[in-house]
User: What shape does this take?
Amino acid sequence: MIALRRAAAIALVLVLSAAAQAQIINRVDVPAGEATPTGASFSILFPVPYSDLEMRAADPDAPTIVVRMVTGITADGVRLSASETPFLPGVAPQPVEDFMNGLKEKSGATLSDVNHQHSANAETLAFTLIDAIGGGNYFDVVRAHSVEYVMLIQFHRAQRDKATAMKDAFFGSFKTLQQ
Assistant: This one.
């Protein structure tokens, strides 16, 4: 469980890409269903009640980036999260593979199931990180409309089959609200 929490913390830090954040909780215990974080440009179908959060860099000298997120956890401990992080204006984003490789290096987990696709409107990178005791994370990263969306399913080894069964429906329900 410690390895899973460590991986979750690493994922969140990389998603937020800021040293310090101020967290705002917009809503908690929202019933399961279609979830759109407050002010976000995406929706995703949540099979469990969720919370709607936003995080902002606490550095007054840095441009303000607002990360909008929905997250929830099943009764048996599978966490589902989806976030939206805009790119900094005028700054080219690093390759999406850097996100994946950074998580792998920092967590020491095994990387598998890498699927990288490009289309006219979006870039998608899906991958799995499994830690030494069999828990892990399923990721689906989508870059579109100058925004990076990260969908994540985190699980302990005992819940791996349940997480796997939820993965396609959860990731497949993601849609941007921008045209």
